[in-house]
Write a structure and sequence with these properties.
The structure is a single chain. The chain is mainly alpha-helical. It has a domain of about 30 residues. About 55% of the residues lie in helices and about 5% in strands. It is built from 4 helices and 2 strands; from the N terminus they run H-H-H-E-H-E. A two-stranded antiparallel ribbon has the order 1-2. The longest helix has 26 residues. It is extended, with a radius of gyration of 17 Å. It starts with a helix and ends with a strand.
Length: about 100
């Protein structure tokens, strides 16, 4: 059995690896990540990945909302759920979404 996520990740890495390879990370992050790897702190590394995934999903949804064609977020890939909003308000996309742990 293959892992669809691993296949998708490798496809993205092949397509965008060169571009992203030259992108600098915030100061201190590479050293911190290396320390987590050396300490075998898988829980902290997974937490970092989950945060990045959540932020990316939120930004993608916000961009789609501005274009008026935001597809629904699949529950397997994003752990955001819309909050009901009063009809008269027009909150930003960030205000409309809450973080919920993915189950």
């Amino acid at each position: 059995m293959t892992n669809p996520y691993a296949e998708w990740f490798e496809q993205l890495r092949a397509e965008y690896g060169e571009q992203l390879g030259s992108m600098p990370l915030p100061e201190g992050l590479p050293e911190h990540l290396r320390a987590l790897i050396d300490q075998h702190d898988e829980e902290a590394i997974q937490f970092m990945i989950k945060l990045a995934w959540q932020f990316g999903a939120q930004v993608g949804y916000a961009a789609g909302s501005r274009q008026g064609a935001a597809p629904p977020l699949p529950h397997e890939q994003a752990a955001f759920r819309p909050e009901p909003q009063p009809a008269q308000s027009s909150p930003s996309p960030v205000d409309r979404w809450r973080f919920f742990p993915h189950r």
